[in-house]
Design brief:
globular
Protein backbone atom coordinates (compact mmCIF):
# COMPACT_ATOMS: atom_id res chain seq x y z
CA UNK A 1 0.00 0.00 0.00
CA UNK A 2 1.36 3.41 -0.94
CA UNK A 3 0.45 6.83 0.41
CA UNK A 4 -2.24 7.43 -2.22
CA UNK A 5 -4.01 4.16 -1.40
CA UNK A 6 -3.68 4.85 2.33
CA UNK A 7 -5.46 8.18 1.90
CA UNK A 8 -8.13 6.47 -0.20
CA UNK A 9 -8.63 4.05 2.69
CA UNK A 10 -9.05 6.94 5.13
CA UNK A 11 -11.49 8.67 2.78
CA UNK A 12 -13.53 5.45 2.44
CA UNK A 13 -13.58 5.13 6.23
CA UNK A 14 -14.75 8.73 6.56
CA UNK A 15 -17.49 8.06 4.01
CA UNK A 16 -18.66 4.98 5.94
CA UNK A 17 -18.60 6.62 9.36
CA UNK A 18 -21.99 7.90 10.54
CA UNK A 19 -20.14 11.03 11.66
CA UNK A 20 -16.94 11.64 9.69
CA UNK A 21 -15.90 14.15 12.36
CA UNK A 22 -15.75 11.33 14.93
CA UNK A 23 -12.09 10.36 14.58
CA UNK A 24 -12.48 7.18 16.64
CA UNK A 25 -15.27 5.99 14.37
CA UNK A 26 -13.13 6.79 11.32
CA UNK A 27 -10.27 4.78 12.86
CA UNK A 28 -12.62 1.84 13.54
CA UNK A 29 -13.87 1.92 9.95
CA UNK A 30 -10.32 2.23 8.61
CA UNK A 31 -9.28 -0.80 10.67
CA UNK A 32 -12.16 -2.86 9.30
CA UNK A 33 -11.44 -1.82 5.71
CA UNK A 34 -7.72 -2.42 6.06
CA UNK A 35 -8.34 -5.89 7.52
CA UNK A 36 -9.81 -6.95 4.15
CA UNK A 37 -6.42 -6.39 2.47
CA UNK A 38 -3.62 -8.94 2.18
CA UNK A 39 -1.22 -9.02 5.13
CA UNK A 40 1.63 -7.45 3.16
CA UNK A 41 -0.56 -4.44 2.33
CA UNK A 42 -1.50 -4.06 5.98
CA UNK A 43 2.19 -4.05 6.89
CA UNK A 44 2.86 -1.48 4.17
CA UNK A 45 0.00 0.66 5.52
CA UNK A 46 1.72 0.71 8.91
CA UNK A 47 4.81 2.24 7.34
CA UNK A 48 2.75 4.82 5.45
CA UNK A 49 0.99 5.78 8.68
CA UNK A 50 4.27 6.28 10.53
CA UNK A 51 5.75 8.19 7.61
CA UNK A 52 2.82 10.61 7.88
CA UNK A 53 3.38 10.83 11.62
CA UNK A 54 7.04 11.69 10.98
CA UNK A 55 6.19 14.20 8.25
CA UNK A 56 3.88 16.02 10.65
CA UNK A 57 6.34 15.96 13.56
CA UNK A 58 7.08 19.68 13.55
CA UNK A 59 7.35 22.34 16.20
CA UNK A 60 4.71 24.62 14.62
CA UNK A 61 2.16 21.79 14.58
CA UNK A 62 3.10 20.78 18.12
CA UNK A 63 2.59 24.38 19.23
CA UNK A 64 -0.83 24.38 17.57
CA UNK A 65 -1.77 21.12 19.29
CA UNK A 66 -0.57 22.66 22.56
CA UNK A 67 -2.90 25.60 22.09
CA UNK A 68 -5.86 23.54 20.89
CA UNK A 69 -5.63 20.95 23.67
CA UNK A 70 -4.50 23.24 26.47
CA UNK A 71 -1.14 21.48 26.67
CA UNK A 72 0.38 18.60 24.76
CA UNK A 73 2.74 15.85 25.92
CA UNK A 74 4.76 13.64 23.58
CA UNK A 75 1.99 11.05 23.53
CA UNK A 76 -0.63 13.76 23.29
CA UNK A 77 1.05 15.09 20.15
CA UNK A 78 0.97 11.60 18.63
CA UNK A 79 -2.75 11.29 19.43
CA UNK A 80 -3.44 14.78 18.06
CA UNK A 81 -1.76 13.82 14.79
CA UNK A 82 -3.85 10.63 14.78
CA UNK A 83 -6.90 12.88 14.95
CA UNK A 84 -5.47 14.99 12.14
CA UNK A 85 -4.97 11.92 9.91
CA UNK A 86 -8.59 10.93 10.56
CA UNK A 87 -9.64 14.26 9.03
CA UNK A 88 -8.39 13.14 5.61
CA UNK A 89 -5.59 14.05 3.26
CA UNK A 90 -6.65 17.56 2.30
CA UNK A 91 -7.05 18.66 5.91
CA UNK A 92 -3.89 16.85 7.04
CA UNK A 93 -1.71 18.42 4.36
CA UNK A 94 -3.27 21.86 4.74
CA UNK A 95 -2.84 21.94 8.51
CA UNK A 96 0.67 20.49 8.34
CA UNK A 97 1.56 23.40 6.03
CA UNK A 98 -0.30 26.04 8.08
CA UNK A 99 -1.12 24.88 11.63
CA UNK A 100 -2.86 28.18 12.47
CA UNK A 101 -5.50 27.21 9.88
CA UNK A 102 -6.88 24.81 12.50
CA UNK A 103 -8.78 27.84 13.77
CA UNK A 104 -10.88 27.78 10.59
CA UNK A 105 -12.09 24.20 11.09
CA UNK A 106 -15.63 23.82 12.47
CA UNK A 107 -14.54 20.78 14.53
CA UNK A 108 -11.78 22.82 16.17
CA UNK A 109 -14.14 25.70 16.87
CA UNK A 110 -16.69 23.30 18.39
CA UNK A 111 -14.01 21.62 20.50
CA UNK A 112 -12.87 25.03 21.75
CA UNK A 113 -16.42 25.98 22.72
CA UNK A 114 -16.99 22.66 24.51
CA UNK A 115 -13.51 22.34 26.05
CA UNK A 116 -12.84 19.04 24.25
CA UNK A 117 -9.35 17.82 23.36
CA UNK A 118 -8.75 16.70 19.80
CA UNK A 119 -6.99 13.35 19.75
CA UNK A 120 -7.34 9.87 18.33
CA UNK A 121 -4.98 7.25 19.72
CA UNK A 122 -6.99 4.60 17.86
CA UNK A 123 -5.75 5.90 14.50
CA UNK A 124 -2.22 4.88 15.46
CA UNK A 125 -3.30 1.25 15.88
CA UNK A 126 -5.28 0.68 12.70
CA UNK A 127 -2.60 -1.46 11.02
CA UNK A 128 -1.89 -3.37 14.25
CA UNK A 129 -5.57 -4.19 14.78
CA UNK A 130 -6.23 -4.90 11.09
CA UNK A 131 -3.31 -7.34 10.98
CA UNK A 132 -4.62 -9.23 14.02
CA UNK A 133 -8.10 -9.35 12.49
CA UNK A 134 -6.82 -10.52 9.11
CA UNK A 135 -4.16 -12.99 10.21
CA UNK A 136 -4.73 -13.72 13.89
CA UNK A 137 -1.14 -12.59 14.45
CA UNK A 138 0.52 -9.44 15.72
CA UNK A 139 2.05 -7.01 13.29
CA UNK A 140 5.69 -8.06 12.76
CA UNK A 141 8.15 -6.21 15.00
CA UNK A 142 9.98 -4.87 11.93
CA UNK A 143 6.79 -3.77 10.13
CA UNK A 144 7.75 -0.11 10.20
CA UNK A 145 10.39 2.34 11.25
CA UNK A 146 9.86 5.79 12.69
CA UNK A 147 12.13 8.56 11.47
CA UNK A 148 11.24 11.55 13.61
CA UNK A 149 13.34 14.65 13.03
CA UNK A 150 15.20 16.25 15.93
CA UNK A 151 12.97 19.17 16.89
CA UNK A 152 15.65 20.59 19.16
CA UNK A 153 17.50 21.70 16.03
CA UNK A 154 14.65 24.05 15.12
CA UNK A 155 15.85 27.04 17.14
CA UNK A 156 13.18 29.31 15.66
CA UNK A 157 10.60 27.45 17.79
CA UNK A 158 12.74 27.15 20.92
CA UNK A 159 10.46 28.94 23.38
CA UNK A 160 8.10 28.01 26.19
CA UNK A 161 4.74 27.00 24.69
CA UNK A 162 3.10 28.44 27.82
CA UNK A 163 4.18 31.91 26.66
CA UNK A 164 0.79 33.18 25.51
CA UNK A 165 2.21 36.34 23.95
CA UNK A 166 4.58 34.31 21.78
CA UNK A 167 1.84 31.84 20.85
CA UNK A 168 -0.43 34.75 19.93
CA UNK A 169 2.28 36.13 17.68
CA UNK A 170 2.99 32.81 15.96
CA UNK A 171 -0.51 31.30 15.87
CA UNK A 172 -2.80 34.34 16.04
CA UNK A 173 -6.06 32.71 14.92
CA UNK A 174 -5.69 29.73 17.24
CA UNK A 175 -4.63 31.92 20.13
CA UNK A 176 -7.67 34.13 19.61
CA UNK A 177 -9.90 31.05 19.67
CA UNK A 178 -8.31 29.26 22.62
CA UNK A 179 -6.27 31.66 24.73
CA UNK A 180 -8.57 34.65 25.10
Amino acid sequence: MDTQRFWQLIEAARNQAPDPNDAEEVADRATSLLATHPAEEIVAAAQVLWNLMADSYTNPLWAAAYVVNGGCSDDGFDYFRGWLIAQGREVFEGIAADPDALADMPAVRAAAADGIDLNCEEMLTIAWNAHITATGKRLPDDAFTIRYPNLDLDLAWDFNFDDQDEMSRRLPRLAALHLE
